[in-house]
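Q: What would this complex look like in 3D?
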Amino acid sequence: MNKLKKITGKPLFLPIFCMLLVMAVNIVYDVSSGNFAFNFFTISVRNGVLYGRLIDILNRGSEVTILAIGMTLVVSASAGTDISVGSVMSLAASFCCMLLAGYGVSAANDLAVPLIVGVLGAILMGCICGAFNGFLVAYLNVQPMVATLILFSAARAIGLLLCNNLIVYVRNESFQFFGGYLGFLPTPIVIAAVCIAIVGILLKKTALGLYIQSVGINKRASRIAGLNSARIIFLCYLVCGLAAGIAGLVASSRISSADSNNIGLNYELDAILAVALGGNSLGGGKFNLAGSIIGAYTIQAISITLYALGVSTEQAPVYKAIIVILIVTIQAPPFKAWIKRMNAKRALEKGGAAA
Amino acid sequence: MDQNVVLTMRGITMTFPGVKALDHVDFTLRSGEIHALMGENGAGKSTLIKCLTGINAFEAGEIHVAGIQGPVVNHSTLDAQKKGISTVYQEVNLCPNLSVAENLFIGREPKTRLGTIDWKEMNRRSQKIMTDLDMNIDVTQNLEEYSLALQQMIAIARAVDMDCKVLILDEPTSSLDDNEVAKLFRLMKQLKEKGVGIVFVTHFLEQVYAVCDRITVLRNGQLVGEYPIAELPRVKLVAAMMGKDFDDLAAIKSEEAPAFSDEDLLIDAQGMSHKGTIKPFNLQIHKGEVVGLTGLLGSGRSELARVIYGADRNQTGTLKVKGQEVKINAPIDAMNLGMGLLPDDRKAEGIIGDLSVRENIILALQAKRGMFRLLPMKEQVEIADKYIEMLQIKTASRETLIRQLSGGNQQKVILGRWLATDPDFLILDEPTRGIDIGTKTEIQKLVLKLAGEGKSLIFISSEIEEMLRTCSKMAVLRDGVKVGEITEELSQETVMKAIAGGGSDE
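A: Here is my prediction, written as structure tokens for the whole assembly.
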């Protein structure tokens, strides 16, 4: 009993529990439909690359995971969300493809500039957008939702402008690498892992995590204690923009094109959801990066499970919503308090019976 | 049950993680009495009140309220209010961005026939409430437009207006000046006549003896006893609270003011100011000197210190530290020059509520080191433990969240935060507000000890006696102007005269 309590009290318990639940559903499905019970976990090698549902989740979930890293920091430091990340992804992709194909060209097989220029372009564009958001929130005290609403609506249009209203195709193998394979592993998995590692090390080896949480909990007190609160908030938005830039690069490489209207569509919502699923308060302050990352992969796992169950693409959001409602309810403080009360009551009854 | 009794609490017990906050505490309140609830920090006063008002759930015990059958368990403050129990807390818990009228009627707004809020009626009634209490303010202004003291009075007005049988005042006077305290006391006596039972929690002994009829004393979560005021003289009360006889206060006495030479000059402010809060002032502070800033609330005593520290931007004049002219753009610049500021508003500018005691203690030191030179965990633990022990901070562990500590212990953590940076110059703005007499004494002793080590301090307090004991020089402020300095003949009388202003009295 006590041991159980210890485990359920851990901050990462719920995100992991949710993930396991999704996996369990997969197993039940596979068993009931007469497949191999652990189909979900089976990883095979086909054509020299890894293949399997699990790999698919890790691969397809990379963009949201990268976004969730930035989003976690933004939520913690400013008690607000950056709703522009999906659009910024699209803008970064457009800028990247425009550079690589050359302005006005709708499809290119050869790169107009070295690949690295396009890659850095996407990242730079993400940073510029992040800096813009950060400036508005940190220095002009605009509410995060309003500040990021600007790029939420404008970034896609700017992207279209850059691409001359075309869907720019870059059918070049070196560019397709970012959405393709690195050895036997899908490259997006590697990119996401590198992003997680870099931010993880930064949080572990520097005081960044303490600073961000401190500012998120009490901005004024943090300033008196010597922190540059505005600069820290700015930095978080910058990182969030950077993450969007990287995610945009991956997303456009996957489809070898910059489809301004569709890249990163609704990704901001998944990123915010990932943060919430990770057990982080959207009210800012304390955060748990690992939770957000598990949350991001959980969202992807839900989508892929639904497809595996044969739910049509059009219907999937309905089921996804139901699952999300369940998961979020389990994590809600009033629900936790209710469980606690029930447990106390049961313990009381048991104690009474013993006496 | 006695006819007069409006509230009884029996055997109230509750535990916080690792600490028994209340251990079978009894409390009885009669109608038409002002009942002081006394005890040191962490004695369980606030916890007991939170149990009564439904903020904390207690584990054992019973509460009875006159006119209600059976034991009462409140689940929220709203619940308690419905049963006639109203509370005004230590820190003002109102909404600063709503108007005074909205704050007075929040949750019980007068409605029109259409079910919308009747603003006219609300404002009219609010104005009447305020006028009845001798406060002539515009109720349509936002609450934040008014001083902390006025906000406190408004919070009390709100509680009073809700036809309560039991009114709980938790440290209501800690941010009021004498005039306002007198006003509040008049109000309390009025309510007493009407038969309201008032629970009065305060650290000011004088105030207890000025208005109260009865005293209940708690210590370490246990009931020490309930006494009629006449049977418990001051010395006995202090002894009951501390659990020992107590003459430590007398032991504190600063020695004769030592002479300071210009070579020892640490802080030299010439013509510094911040628009709207403090007019240009000069101030010199020497090594090892304790300078008191005194004046009424809102006189600019806090603001003066904030300008030196860079919490508010200096707009004119110059600041020299150790003879070097410096420019301070943000608190971190001041910290790098060896300064520290313990702000007066602990909740808004002091604690980082959701961080642990350890993180709160090392925060300023870590900020000074910069983001990339993270203090190793081992050192963090050592520093935290050192100050928890040195300042006798009562906490379940160093990893306990600071918001779970009592007010006085939170203050000690913030003090530890600054001591950890080893400052040359420390500004303490109301370090003793809302904390118990034992801790107050410790802090005063600490101030003298730090001065003895050659550190300079600014000490700001509403209690002149405290400053007389610790300061060797006092600067007097009035209406945002530094009007003078007193270095000789520091006494209550001279200081009071200086604060009130010389010349003809009105």
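A: To summarize the key features: Chain B touches chain A at residues 311, 330-332, 335, 341, 343, 348-355, 359, 363-364, 366-375, 417 (CB under 8 Å). The CA atoms of residues 162 and 295 of chain B lie 35 Å apart.
Q: Very helpful, thank you.
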